[in-house]
Amino acid sequence: MRVVVGLLVLVLVASGGWIAARHLAPAETKIERRLAAMAEGFNDTRLSPCMAGLAQDYHDTSGADREWIRQGLVASFFRERDPGTKRFRWRVELPREALRIAVDPEAGDRAKASLVARFHEREGTEEHLAWEVRIDAHLEERDGDWVITRTSHETVSGSKWWR
């Protein structure tokens, strides 16, 4: 019985520590984690993590909004498959060295992030950089989570990954 109680206490302490570390992390860390989760969701063709990072009122200066992004991702996740491997043809990376996050010191619940996204196209076992884009994002903390409210982007090299 003591072993069971001891294990239960250990699990509760570890869980409490994880929850505290997650909620007490600096805003910059939370934003970086959000962006990484979105990229991982894209690479794994999971829509939910991609969309969780976009506010309901999200828009890009190009005219794209949250629904346009959702529809584009759904279509791409199903259409953009390598004919040989059946894997999703695209992979995105967000180089940490290119990420800049500035939290508004007065508001505290607003931030700006500048990042680079590199979209790699897979063909069989090979892949090549197809599009590199610089993104400037405005974020807000809403209901305890950081979400992107608007973006602007500029192509650095290549061309857009979607067709």
Please name the defining characteristics of this protein.
Nuclear Transport Factor 2, Chain: A; six-stranded mixed sheet; alpha+beta; 163 residues
Q: What is the gist of this entry?
A:
This protein has about 160 residues and is an alpha+beta fold.
Description:
This protein has 163 residues and is an alpha+beta fold. The chain has a single domain, classed as Nuclear Transport Factor 2, Chain: A, CATH 3.10.450.50. Strands 1, 2, 3, 4, 5 and 6 form a 6-stranded mixed beta sheet that branches. The protein is globular, with a radius of gyration of 19 Å. About 4% of the residues have low confidence.
Quickly give the structural class.
alpha+beta
Look at the structure and give the mean pLDDT: 88
What composes the largest sheet? 6 strands, mixed
Number of helices: 4
Given as residue ranges, the uncertain stretches (5+ residues, pLDDT < 50) are 17-22
Count of individual beta strands: 6
Element layout with pairings:
Layout (H helix, E strand, L loop, with lengths): L1 H23 L2 H17 L3 H6 L1 E7 L5 H14 L10 E4 L6 E4 L6 E14 L2 E17 L2 E14 L5
Parallel strand pairs: 1-6
Antiparallel strand pairs: 2-4, 3-4, 4-5, 5-6
